[in-house]
Structure formats: structure tokens, C-alpha cells
Write a structure and sequence with these properties.
Layout (H helix, E strand, L loop, with lengths): L38 E2 L3 H5 L3 E3 L9 E3 L5 E2 L1 E13 L8 E7 L2 E7 L4 H8 L5 E13 L5 E12 L2 H26 L6 H6 L4 H13 L6 H12 L39 H14 L6 E2 H10 L4 H13 L3 E5 L2 E4 L1
Helix pairs in contact: 3-5, 3-6, 7-8
Length: 336
């Protein structure tokens, strides 16, 4: 097992990502026994924040977890620094448990006798090193109600910095896209799977978004924006650069010099104190039940006052940066 880029899942394992989440034919084929599931690229923040499951309704059909941003996941492709590895089995039956750290947290990757190729590969790894793993997700509910997430790998390989940077780049892009799609869905009270597909969302993600919104509170975007920023900084020469990622995702995100970065914001209108005061008054007025001001109603009221949706976003971002408001969920803004 070596660190050559040609041996990483991003080249020799490209078959895992040929059906990566993104624009896909709207007439998607439903999962069938034996079909290989898409390996989603997720940061550990989104992966470990998962609490929803979709159990199979037919024999030999796959099970899924649904992340807070609506990824409907059976398999993942994760990467990071192997910081700990331990064999908790015996000489006759190994059970490898390892921790892999990405820019936002940790993945736990476990392999035993039912994952022979991955288990053999893990036996030769020495921490710390860069690794990538592709495999199935496992959600475990403890007696105290807590949930733990782990990866049961089909394959584990040691990778180099170039391969890890590519994983970070692609994961940042897809996380950004999911966040944007989730926010769009939150602004559509009657959104359906078909509605989202007609807007260009891939079927698996459209199903996941609607399932997440039907079964859990909409997520706060702050934690995912922070994960994206922290990840992108790993690709830049100066990790202290303020990327200025806005609260709403653009259609395209580029990196300076060929990499990935957030676009430069337009000059904010947030410096206009009267506009900020007007938005603060609206937030207070629309918070009728203590949950916060509904975004859709806030946008309608602001527009009637001559404040565009772009201006509202800039003002909201500025007020959040000042610590005056926060986002309890993607559907609401609330005064602190």
C-alpha cells in the first residue's frame, strides 16, 4: 500500500464516483438488488449530524441514512488524516477501528472479517498518514438515545496531499450545492420531489431533501458554511484569508489560480443603518411564536419596502456577524 496518486480512490477507484451526486437524468432508475450505490462525498460535520434512516421495504433492498442537508446515503467516500488505529479483535479475527480526521471533524472507520480487503489494508497503515476509504454507512442508536455514525469500508488506501486536496475540493463543492438546494426547498412550502427534480436537483438528493424536511427541523446553515470555509482554507497558502462566503450559495464557486473559492461579495448595503434598523423591526414583528421570523414572509415584507432579496441577504449576514441575530434553522431568522 503506497501513497501514489494512481492508487487512490480518486483515480483507480473512479468507478465509485461516476454516478456522483449532481445533475442526473430525471428518469432515474430506482435502486435494485445488486446495484452499486453512489458514494457520496461528505464532510464529517454533515456525516456525524445524521439521525434519519430509511429502512428497506423489500428483501435485499438497500437501507439509507438521510443527512441534514438531504443527501440520501448508502455509501460514502471519505478522506483525511488517520490519527488513530487499533486492532480490537484477536489474532484469528481482526477488528480494526480507526479515526480519520478531515477539516471539520472525525470519521470512524471500522473493518473486520466481513471487509477482508479493507481489513488487510488497514493492517499495514501506521498513524499519522493520509487515507481515503469508500464503504457503507452505519447508524447506531444507543440506549441513551445518542447516535453514532461509522463507515464499514470496502476499500482503504493511503493517499498523497494532491489526492486529499481533490477530495476536499469536490466535497466542498457538493456540500455547497446541497446547502443551496436545501435552502431553495425551505423557501417553497409545497415543495415535492418532482418539483425539485424539475429545478435540476438529482433524484436521490430531491428524495432526501423532502424526507429530511418531513421528518426533522430544517438545519442551520452556519455549521456547514463554517465547514466549507475551513476546508477551502486548507487549499490556500494563507489559511487566515477571509473567504467572505455569503449566506446564499451561488451557482458556481471557483478557486483563485484554478482552485475553489467563494466569489467576492458585492459592496454590502449593511452599512446603511436605516436598512438594518428596518430589518430588525421586521424580525421583531414577524416573530409571533418565539421561533423567529419566517424567511419567506420576511423576504416578502422587505421587498414591499424596496429591499431586494440580495440586499436582505447582505443585511442579514451583517447582522449575524455583529451578533445581533442568528439562524435557528434555514426557515427562520431570530433576534438574539
Amino acid at each position: 500500500m503506497n501513497g501514489d496518486f494512481e492508487d487512490s480512490p480518486f483515480s483507480s477507484g473512479n468507478e465509485y464516483m461516476r454516478e456522483a451526486p449532481g445533475p442526473q437524468p430525471q428518469q432515474a432508475v430506482k435502486s435494485r438488488p445488486g446495484a452499486r450505490e453512489t458514494a457520496w462525498r461528505l464532510f464529517s460535520t454533515e456525516f456525524n449530524g445524521t439521525s434519519l434512516e430509511i429502512k428497506p421495504t423489500e428483501e435485499k433492498m438497500p437501507s439509507y441514512v438521510v443527512t441534514p442537508l438531504g443527501a440520501k446515503v448508502n455509501r460514502v467516500l471519505v478522506a483525511g488524516v488517520l490519527t488513530e488505529i487499533e486492532d480490537r479483535g484477536s489474532e484469528d479475527e481482526h477488528m480494526w477501528v480507526c479515526r480519520v480526521q478531515d477539516p471539520s471533524g472525525n470519521f470512524y472507520v471500522n473493518a473486520g472479517r466481513f471487509q477482508p480487503e479493507a481489513s488487510a489494508a488497514m493492517a499495514s497503515l501506521v498513524a499519522p498518514c493520509l487515507v481515503a476509504a469508500v464503504g457503507k454507512v452505519r447508524l447506531f442508536r444507543r440506549e441513551d438515545g445518542n447516535i453514532s455514525m461509522s463507515v464499514r469500508p470496502e476499500r482503504v488506501v493511503q493517499i498523497d496531499e494532491k489526492a486529499y486536496s481533490e477530495w476536499i475540493l469536490e466535497t466542498a463543492k457538493t456540500t455547497w450545492a446541497r446547502l443551496k438546494n436545501m435552502r431553495r426547498a425551505c423557501g417553497m412550502p409545497d415543495a415535492t420531489v418532482d418539483t425539485l427534480i424539475s429545478m435540476g436537483v438529482c433524484p436521490a438528493e430531491a428524495e432526501g431533501i423532502i424526507y429530511a424536511l418531513d421528518n426533522a427541523e430544517p438545519p442551520s446553515s452556519e455549521v456547514y458554511l463554517r465547514s466549507i470555509q475551513n476546508a477551502i482554507r486548507k487549499l490556500l497558502p494563507d489559511e487566515e484569508i477571509d473567504l467572505g462566503i455569503p449566506g446564499d450559495a451561488p451557482d458556481e464557486v471557483y478557486v483563485p489560480g484554478g482552485g475553489f473559492s467563494a466569489p467576492r461579495r458585492s459592496e454590502p448595503v449593511a452599512g446603511n443603518a436605516s436598512t438594518e434598523d428596518a430589518i430588525m423591526r421586521l424580525l421583531e414583528e414577524l416573530d409571533v411564536d418565539g421561533r423567529g421570523a419566517p424567511r419567506d414572509e420576511l423576504e416578502r415584507r422587505a421587498e414591499s419596502m424596496g429591499i431586494s432579496s440580495i440586499e436582505l441577504e447582505e443585511v442579514s449576514n451583517s447582522l449575524m456577524e455583529k451578533g445581533l441575530i442568528y439562524e435557528p434553522s434555514l426557515k427562520f431568522l431570530k433576534i438574539i
